[in-house]
Write a structure and sequence with these properties.
Distance between the termini: 24 Å
Radius of gyration: 21 Å
Number of strands: 15
Helix content: 10-25%
Number of helices: 5
Order of helices and strands: EHEEEEHEEEEHEEEHEEEH
Shape: elongated
């Protein structure tokens, strides 16, 4: 029997933020190979992570527990049902906004110190880090989980996101997309040194009434949510939409115009003084990998069809619109789950997939 301390061979499926973060952390202890159809540096319809805005704002419940100003605005406010988010004691300078600080037609808002991330840059950093640690990449389009099991594989980590709906051996029908349309604009570096989110729905729906375990914590079709998220190179992401079960990745010109208009109505200071028009770099639509029953981080033992070898399969998908903010914590949870499963040793039942 292989020692728990020996270098086990791990295959990680997917090179998005969940897959790369998990692979980097695992490579420090194991020999890891990433198998993926896409890699950082590419902008493709099925590759969600590069399209993200990527600011930090936890959607965890109250019991689950370089900085810039983060603002959150709500058009509707139900004060008797409001609870401050759990991170009010974590983020510096958390407070409620005064009435004269609120944009037009906004009833309530909060402000706190937070961080934003440049997704393409961070994905490339993770890939470089993975290579530096000795990791390997295989460019593969998988049709079945068994194709990720090589002769020396001991462990497979499934970070296939929306692909988990169709990937053979997984085919999780609780997975579906929530499309998000964005407009990427170029502004002077440092001009937008804050991030904001504005929702037309009540804060009660977001924080209290929504079943977080269903991972539908943001508005669905027909309800507006807008955000402004800056990057360190002067690019600013303007969003957006949250359209459940929509697989289209084609930007809609009318929606783009509405996104820009609402973002400017909320924060006119997006435009530098003297400027009347934003410089648009590109329009995009990303597909958030939502899962009806929440994020799936769990392990199961399967048998390799080619060798009959016992393989540990760990899942890490279904993060919806929170993949970037939860990536490190989710990856650490995967490693904890993996180690616990290895330490428990023999399992009497196997999943035949």
């Amino acid at each position: 029997m292989q020692s728990l301390n020996s270098k086990k061979q791990v295959t990680v499926i997917g090179a998005g933020i969940s897959g790369l973060t998990t692979a980097v952390l695992l490579q420090e202890q194991y020999n890891v190979t990433i198998v993926s159809r896409e890699l950082p540096g590419e902008l493709k319809d099925g590759y969600t992570s590069p399209w993200a805005g990527a600011n930090w704002r936890s959607h965890a419940k109250l019991d689950d527990i370089r900085q810039q100003d983060g603002f959150e605005y709500w058009d509707e406010y139900l004060p008797l049902e409001w609870n401050d988010p759990w991170f009010k004691d974590l983020c510096p300078e958390y407070r409620h906004l005064t009435k004269d600080e609120l944009p037009t037609d906004v009833e309530f808002g909060i402000k706190y110190k937070t961080v934003t991330i440049n997704p393409p840059k961070h994905l490339s950093y993770l890939l470089d880090r993975f290579y530096a640690l000795g990791g390997t990449i295989k460019r593969i389009t998988l049709s079945h989980i068994q194709e990720a099991i090589f002769d020396n594989t001991d462990i497979v980590i499934n970070c296939s996101g929306l692909g988990s709906k169709t990937l053979g051996g997984v085919q999780d029908q609780d997975v579906y997309p929530a499309s998000g349309q964005t407009v990427l604009v170029q502004l002077p570096i440092g001009h937008v040194n804050w991030t904001c989110t504005r929702s037309a729905v009540s804060i009660t729906k977001i924080f209290n009434s929504v079943k977080q375990q269903d991972n539908e914590e943001l508005p669905g079709k027909g309800e507006r949510i807008n955000y402004v998220i800056p990057r360190d190179n002067g690019e600013v992401v303007l969003g957006g939409t949250y359209d459940l079960h929509n697989y289209s990745t084609t930007p809609d010109a009318k929606i783009a115009d509405a996104i820009i208009a609402r973002c400017l109505a909320t924060r006119p200071d997006i435009l530098p003084k003297g400027e009347t028009k934003l410089k648009i770099i590109r329009h995009g639509v990303g597909l958030r990998p939502v899962r009806k029953n929440g994020v799936r981080i769990e392990a199961e033992w399967i048998l390799s069809e080619s060798t009959g070898k016992k393989i540990l399969l760990c899942h890490n998908y279904g993060h919806g619109g929170s993949g970037w903010q939860s990536s490190y914590g989710a990856s650490m949870h995967v490693i904890q789950t993996l180690k616990q499963s290895l330490s428990e040793g023999q399992v009497n039942t196997y999943a035949k997939i």
